[in-house]
Design a protein that fits this description.
Mean pLDDT: 87
Distance between the termini: 31 Å
Largest sheet: 7 strands, mixed
Low-confidence stretches: 1-5, 494-498, 633-641
CATH class of the largest domain: Alpha Beta
Bound molecules: adenosine-5'-diphosphate, magnesium ion
Radius of gyration: 31 Å
CATH topology of the largest domain: Rossmann fold
Helix content: 25-40%
Length: 699
């Protein structure tokens, strides 16, 4: 024992507790529990509500209820449709009830005759008996039946440790130590946030007298989890502002008019609002740190260009960084064409330059001669030193992974940073993963956009019709993409479906047969750079009718005349990715079409593809993706799935997240935060986050 831990009873090692000897303390160690504090925070993974158990007479068709019973029969058999059906018969209060499981034969082994269990679910009255289909089960020990009428916590266990022992142990620990746990929240703050004291919360969670008590306890504990995280974000934002003095960039009505004249279209109200927010940020003496979220095709590029030109007009340099060379090239073409006849000095910085070109470009960047730079990650390499960088735009941020926001090197002051993403991020995720950024969300699209007609294509007959339809449109002068999941044939896993999934095989197939009469191109990541650029350029200029591609075209590609897309083996892509891909078509005023080729018979794939058919709203799709596959996929490469939360669940706790966020951001801006009684809370936040979130150790 270290001298410190002997002073603090909460740090007492569990082996010194009554009822825990060396053997049990080894079991505890397996659960990651070493001290009294660990035990107190060993929260139940569930609760058993024994206060609301229905008798058989009280059951109602389709109404969620719980019955208690003893297993009296169990069997498993095959049905006429080839499924297995496992049936468990319970003797309950007032008669028999049955639980059935389809295609889960292992369920049979989980029930033994004479066992006492709870079934929860929505029963149906079938063949004169109440039946629960796939009920939720709680297996009860004897003592739980004796404790009937109560709410019991359910803990994670390890072999050799029973639920009953764990509960008894926890009861002893909570009764003796919970009152020693200091509450980091001052009482005034607590009552405004409508949360109970920490000591009572621990009691409510471990020893709940009712479900209401349990919920109140959990509310406090989840709130703290979210609050600490939001405080860290708010502190990081405050710190960022204090540390990142920036050159305020002023603009004027004249500059505004001059920039707007460049565009061939009128900006949408959403674009105008985003621009207004950005311009306001740019005028501040600390660096902007803003996330612009808008659905695919909303016109983020125009917003970025506007902001960069404001910066250039104010006498500083601006840079836009794209995740792929293809996209950087596209931005370059757009910007270069837009600025034709203007004096703005613009440069493209990508990996493919010759040594001499690169040297010259770097030289112009560091001398300040280059005013507007378009590039890939190449622009944040160490060799790139801007003379006076005022604004950095990061396009399609989700493709970059963790962005080191201060990687742009530039003299004394920090550049303003605008981050753009077309992957709509569910609100709750946004408030956490990107919670330290200011947020602009655009929800309108340029006028005249039509919803892309999307249909799943199954079987050779409908594939035939899809190809014929596309040929017809190509003859009318339209263009199409065919997107493939892989680049080349993979001889090691060469089932016929796999061979067909490769971009090279499909390119051969289509260009030599089906689309012989058309001009067909191929792009993927392993092609030579010049060839890739040339092919994209030809497609953009209408010199190719059909482009076979991998997901290199996923982000940002904008060819308004391309109105059709085929996605081969669509089930292999995630929802957000499909949405991005589909966003490549239907960008002009002409109706777009997306064909999702998929012969997969997986129900999960069917669900995803059906979601694509029925909704065009990227935000809804992102929510669906989040629910189906968790945060990792939605965020792409950014810290896949590892949210620094302990007990909160972003799906379940959305409302509480909003409360915690408001409370945290208000607190950080208020004088209350500087008072002495806030010190314990600050210390907790710093201990927990200063490393992962780069917070200064002094608050
Ligand atoms: P994204 O937000 O996906 O990056 P882009 O910036 O590539 O979208 O814009 C998509 C298309 O919409 C481009 O062809 C662009 O020229 C066009 N566009 C952008 N803003 C408008 C507008 N206000 N009115 C009409 N077309 C617009
Ligand atoms: Mg874009």
């Amino acid at each position: 024992m270290s001298p410190n831990s002997s002073d603090d009873p909460l740090q007492t090692p569990v082996r010194f507790l009554r009822g825990i000897g060396p053997a049990r303390s080894d079991l505890m160690a397996r659960l990651g529990i070493a001290t009294v504090t660990d035990l107190l925070w060993n929260l139940p993974r569930d609760v058993l509500d024994l206060t609301h158990i229905s008798t058989v007479f009280e059951l109602k068709e389709g109404v969620l209820s719980t019955v208690f019973g003893v297993v009296v029969d169990r069997d498993s058999r095959h049905t006429s449709t080839g499924k297995t059906m496992t049936a468990i018969l319970l003797q309950a209060d007032g008669g028999f009830v049955r639980g059935v499981y389809f295609n889960q034969p292992y369920m049979l082994r989980r029930f033994e005759l004479g066992q006492r269990v709870l079934f929860s679910g929505k029963p149906k009255f079938i063949a004169r008996r109440w039946e629960f289909s796939h009920p939720t089960v709680q297996w009860l020990g004897d003592e739980e039946i004796e404790e009937g009428g109560r709410v019991l916590p359910v803990y994670s266990l390890t072999e050799g440790l029973s639920q009953h022992e764990m509960r008894r142990l926890m009861k002893g620990v909570v009764e003796e130590y919970a009152e020693l746990v200091p509450d980091p929240l001052p009482s005034g703050f607590r009552s405004r946030a409508n949360v109970i004291e920490l000591t009572s919360a621990l009691r409510c969670v471990h020893l709940p007298a009712s479900m209401d008590e349990y919920r109140a306890g959990m509310r406090r504990i989840v709130f703290d989890d979210l609050l600490e995280f939001q405080l860290a974000l708010a502190m990081r934002r405050r710190f960022w502002r204090a540390e990142n003095a920036a050159v305020p960039l002023q603009t004027s009505a004249k500059i505004d008019a001059r920039i707007r004249r460049l565009f061939s279209f009128r900006l949408t109200p959403g674009q105008d609002r985003a621009i207004a927010e950005i311009v306001e940020d740019l005028g501040r003496p600390y660096a902007m740190h803003r996330l612009l979220q808008a659905d695919v095709g909303a016109g983020k590029t125009a917003i970025a260009i506007y902001a960069m030109l404001v910066a250039v007009a104010a006498g500083v340099q601006a840079v836009i960084m794209a995740p792929t060379e293809v996209l950087a090239q596209q931005h370059w073409s757009t910007i270069d064409a837009l600025l034709e006849g203007s004096r703005v000095e613009r440069r493209l910085l990508i990996g493919g330059l010759t040594a001499a070109q690169r040297r010259a470009t770097l030289e112009q960047i560091s001398s300040g001669e280059a005013q507007l730079v378009v590039g890939t990650q190449a622009v944040i390499q160490d060799a790139v030193a801007f003379k006076k960088l005022g604004l950095a735009v990061i396009d399609e941020q989700h493709k970059f992974g963790v962005v080191q926001r201060s990687r742009f090197s530039s003299g004394e002051t920090a550049p303003h940073v605008l981050v753009m993403t077309a992957t709509p991020i569910p609100r709750s995720l946004c408030l956490t993963q990107y919670g330290d950024l200011d947020l602009t969300v655009i929800s309108d699209l340029p006028p005249g956009r039509q919803r892309v007609v999307t249909s799943r294509v199954v079987g050779s007959g409908s594939a035939r019709r899809a190809w014929d339809f596309i040929k017809q449109k190509l003859r009318d002068g339209r263009q199409a993409y065919v997107v493939c999941p892989r680049i080349e044939d993979n001889p090691t896993t060469a089932s016929s479906a796999d061979v067909y999934g490769s971009a090279e095989a499909i390119y051969r197939e289509l260009s030599e047969r089906e689309f012989r009469e058309f001009r067909v191109g191929l792009v993927h990541g392993q092609l030579d750079r010049d060839e890739r650029v040339r092919t994209m350029e030809m497609f953009r200029n209408g010199e190719l009718d059909l482009l076979v591609a991998t997901t290199v075209i996923e982000v940002g590609i904008d060819v308004p005349n391309a109105t059709m897309m085929v996605i081969e083996q669509a089930e292999r892509f995630g929802l957000s990715q499909l949405h991005q891909l589909r966003g490549r078509v239907g960008r002009g005023k002409v109706q777009g079409y997306c064909f999702l080729f998929s012969d997969s018979d997986s129900p999960e794939a069917a669900k995803r593809l059906a979601a694509m058919e029925s909704t065009a709203d990227g935000f809804k799709i992102a929510e669906a993706d989040f629910e189906l596959r968790g945060p990792g996929d939605v965020l792409g490469t950014r810290q896949s799935g590892s949210l620094p939360l302990r007990v909160a669940d972003l799906n379940r706790d959305q409302a509480l997240l909003d409360e915690a966020r408001v409370a945290a951001f208000n607190l950080v801006e208020s004088e209350e935060f500087d008072q002495l009684d806030m010190a314990p809370l600050k210390i907790r936040v710093l201990e927990r986050f200063h490393r992962s979130m780069d917070l200064p150790q002094t608050g």
